[in-house]
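Morning F.,

Quick status update on the modeling queue. The single chain you submitted on Monday has been processed. Sequence for confirmation:
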Amino acid sequence: MEFHRILIAIDSNPSSEVIAQSGLQLAQQYKSEVALISVINEDDQLDTDPPTSTELTDMMEHICNKHQLNVIDKVFKSTPVKSFIEKGTAYKAIIKIAEQWGADIIVMGTHGKKGLTHLIMGSVAEQVIRHSKKTVVVIPVIDPHS
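Structure tokens below.
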């Protein structure tokens, strides 16, 4: 199996660097193109007076962009990386961009928990696996605070 394009889904958690590094290693192994995707879920925003919903979305987009640039600088260095910042439901946006960009594989993380919950995958990763026609690689990331 060959992977020409690898889409790596990251969020604003520090574990994004671990996920990006895993995706980069896979890309180097297969000499693949790489893209990062971060998703702003507008449904998670509070509907309050100050700031407005649009202002909050703009702030979140700025934070996602800054975080992606930080991950690119730390992990990818001189490797060319395409960047997507999408708005909407995370799993739907990831699947949509994977289809549009022509990704062969999606790399994403799930946050491990202690006890029984460590057996249950994160809801976004689970939804991508259930609904995507692409190969999905899930990187378990253990949260030291859980």
